[in-house]
């Protein structure tokens, strides 16, 4: 956005710290304002701030807590536009052990609160161990000022509160700091773990560090064969990865940074974030269904290729320009790299010779500490007219209404296929628009088109997590992706999404249940909406869970997802194994029975034990020692 302009600030992602003293708080607030002015967004972990009600010795007063200081940043964001062009964005993080965590989790359940913030709960391995422990779910909250335990809570209740709030308002997200730091090569060089991300969560950063992101449009890497079919151009893809890596490294030096400390820290690690967009359009052209075994394996190869050649090119740059300054203090010297796929996927399944690349890193260094990130690419993908990031298309047909009338926006690849097969009519477009933009269940559309042209709503939420996990294995930073859920999912489904995300190795996850916010960016606008289809997890997901998920508590929680099917017993997940007698195509049909009501808040296992709100009759939850209604605000400790 700022290239060629006077500001010359070319980064989008920044992280600031928030130490527990007034000077530092105001300094970070000022730095945030300068970042917003220059065109960036900010992530801050507020966990070092003392809890609400804690003593302030210098004034003999009491602290107002982290959420009150978030209001300062929220107000600054309102009045300082990014680069004078758009309002800024923030990520607010509070770690699960903080005494104010329950208040933090529910603070965005009412519209109008902290609208300039995405918020996420930071989770470490101690919380996870408490959660999966069969006998003791006691979890300690501690004062960050004194490091003393303040009280004990039930980790299951806290996770249910997170899920309930996300079901209600699509926030908070969850950031898994244990997964983020599992292969962090700069842990010792930077004096500790990563504890914050940029506003969309895909870029973990140390305090006063920034990152430059760039995205390759995958839909441009196809070649048409003699038979009219398309194939992927791997050599062209490699060339573009290498070129883009050099561009992003150059930006670090060309950039004009808004704060001096950011200039210094960014150049110590020289982190870049090369990613992709247009995957859904590419898969359409190659005739590969997004949520199929072939689709997942193809995406895995794309991700591995992206990181391999970006890192290889970073080594080439290091030979002539030098490694990033902290290189000798990092785990790279020992042959460790920040890719879980290298460490966790058997070598005979790798597409490239990673050991050879690691030897080159040891000998010549590497120019950039991390090289790959997958951003949301919302604006970029709109400019390029392709699907964004790693997401499936939101809908194949939108109905648009303007002052001069109405028209349909149709995915261009899908439109061409309809025309080639004589199916393109206004009546079909209307029917698709009214079917939530999907072709599933429309009799006039051939079955092969229904299977190929899948949308976000056609894909079961478990497969959304699976897709993110496939990419995450070979991405050194993280991935911005929305786990789309239909409006009729339960709170239990949301909780299971967090559990699966952690076990799949994701670094963070954002859940969006359709209708959970009063204002949505995207809508399906047909007048006579009627969903003609239902969705279920793919066979690939079934096989992946069987091979990779061994935690009994998680398997027990996801069991109901599979039990909802017809003849449910044969689909049950157990703590030992799946039923291996499943028929080959048993997960390929579009039949699933959902017995939940869209307007119930109860967790399926405990709904009979919940107390009803005396005001609105929805279920009460326990938070901050009080019975509270997340819908109307009623609290047993005071008037709602």
Model description:
With 640 residues, the protein is of the alpha/beta class. Among the domains are: 168 residues, no CATH class; 154 residues, no CATH class; 60 residues, no CATH class. The protein contains 20 helices and 21 strands. It has a nine-stranded mixed sheet with strand order 15-12-1-2-7-8-11-19-18. Strands 3-4 form a two-stranded antiparallel ribbon. Strand 18, helix 18 and strand 19 form a beta-alpha-beta unit. Helix 1 runs parallel beside helix 2, helix 7 crosses helix 10 and helix 18 packs across helix 20. It is globular and about 80 Å long. The relative contact order is 0.10.
Defining traits:
9-stranded mixed beta sheet, two-stranded antiparallel ribbon, 21 strands, 640 residues, 20 helices, alpha/beta, 15% strand
Chain-averaged pLDDT = 86
Gyration radius, to the nearest Å? 25 Å
Number of strands: 21
User: Residue share in helices?
Assistant: 25-40%
Major sheet attributes: 9 strands, mixed
Spatial strand arrangement across the major sheet: 15-12-1-2-7-8-11-19-18
Shape: globular
Q: Which segments are poorly predicted (pLDDT under 50) over 5 or more consecutive residues?
A: 565-609
How much of the polypeptide forms β-strand, as a percent range?
Answer: 15-25%
For the terminal residues, how far apart are their CA atoms?
44 Å
Number of helices: 20
| Secondary-structure content class | alpha/beta
């Amino acid at each position: 956005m700022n290239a060629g302009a006077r500001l010359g600030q070319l980064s989008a992602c920044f992280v600031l710290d928030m130490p527990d003293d007034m000077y530092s708080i105001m300094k970070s607030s000022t730095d945030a304002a300068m970042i917003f002015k220059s065109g960036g967004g900010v992530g801050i972990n507020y966990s070092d701030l003392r809890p609400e009600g804690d003593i302030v010795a210098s004034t003999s007063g009491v602290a107002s807590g982290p959420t009150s200081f978030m209001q300062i940043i929220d107000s600054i964001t309102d009045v300082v536009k990014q680069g004078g062009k758009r309002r800024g964005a923030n990520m607010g993080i509070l770690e699960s052990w903080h005494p104010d965590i329950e208040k933090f989790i529910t603070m965005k359940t009412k519209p109008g609160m902290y609208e300039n913030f995405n918020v996420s709960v930071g989770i470490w391995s101690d919380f996870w161990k408490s959660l999966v422990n069969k006998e003791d779910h006691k979890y300690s909250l501690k004062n960050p000022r004194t490091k003393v335990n303040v009280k004990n809570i039930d980790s299951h209740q806290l996770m249910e509160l997170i899920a309930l709030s996300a079901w209600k308002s699509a926030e908070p997200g969850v950031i898994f700091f244990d997964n983020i730091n599992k292969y962090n090569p700069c842990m010792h060089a930077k004096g500790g773990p990563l504890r914050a991300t940029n506003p969309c969560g895909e870029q973990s950063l140390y305090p006063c560090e920034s990152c430059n992101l760039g995205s390759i449009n995958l839909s441009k890497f196809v070649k048409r064969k003699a038979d009219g079919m398309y194939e992927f151009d791997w050599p062209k893809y490699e060339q573009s990865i290498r070129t883009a890596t050099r561009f992003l490294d150059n930006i670090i030096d060309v950039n004009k940074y808004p704060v001096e400390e950011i200039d210094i820290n960014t150049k110590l690690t020289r982190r870049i974030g090369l990613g992709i967009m247009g995957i859904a359009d590419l898969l359409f052209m190659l005739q590969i269904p997004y949520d199929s075994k072939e689709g997942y394996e193809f995406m895995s190869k794309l991700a591995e290729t992206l990181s391999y050649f970006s890192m290889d090119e970073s080594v080439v740059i290091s030979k002539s320009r030098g490694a990033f300054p902290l290189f000798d203090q990092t785990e790279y010297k020992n042959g460790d790299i920040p890719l879980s796929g290298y460490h966790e996927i058997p070598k005979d399944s790798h597409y490239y010779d990673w050991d050879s690349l690691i030897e080159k890193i040891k000998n010549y260094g590497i120019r950039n500490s991390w090289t790959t990130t997958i951003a949301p690419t919302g604006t970029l993908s709109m400019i390029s007219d392709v699907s964004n990031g790693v997401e499936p298309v939101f809908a194949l047909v939108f109905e648009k209404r303007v002052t001069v009338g109405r028209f349909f926006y149709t995915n261009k690849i899908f439109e061409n296929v309809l025309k080639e097969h004589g199916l393109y009519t206004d009546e079909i477009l209307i029917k698709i628009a009214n079917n939530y933009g999907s072709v599933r269940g429309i009799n006039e559309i051939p079955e092969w088109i229904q299977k190929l042209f899948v949308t976000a709503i056609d894909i079961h939420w478990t497969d959304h997590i699976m897709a993110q996990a496939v990419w995450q294995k070979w991405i050194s930073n993280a991935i911005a992706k929305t786990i789309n859920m239909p409006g009729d999912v339960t709170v239990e489904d949301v909780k299971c999404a967090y559990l699966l995300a952690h076990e799949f190795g994701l670094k963070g996850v954002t859940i969006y249940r359709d209708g959970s916010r009063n204002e949505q960016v995207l809508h399906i606008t047909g007048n006579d909406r009627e969903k003609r289809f239902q969705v279920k997890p793919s066979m690939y997901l079934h096989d992946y869970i069987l091979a990779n998920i061994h935690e009994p508590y998680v398997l027990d929680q996801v069991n109901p997802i599979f039990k909802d099917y017809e003849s449910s017993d044969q689909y049950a997940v157990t703590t030992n194994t799946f039923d291996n007698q499943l028929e080959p195509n048993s997960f390929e049909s579009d039949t699933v029975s959902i017995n939940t009501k869209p307007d119930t808040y109860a967790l399926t296992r405990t709904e009979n034990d919940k107390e009803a709100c005396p005001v609105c009759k929805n279920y009460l939850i326990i938070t901050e020692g009080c019975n509270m209604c997340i819908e109307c605000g009623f609290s047993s400790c005071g008037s709602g």
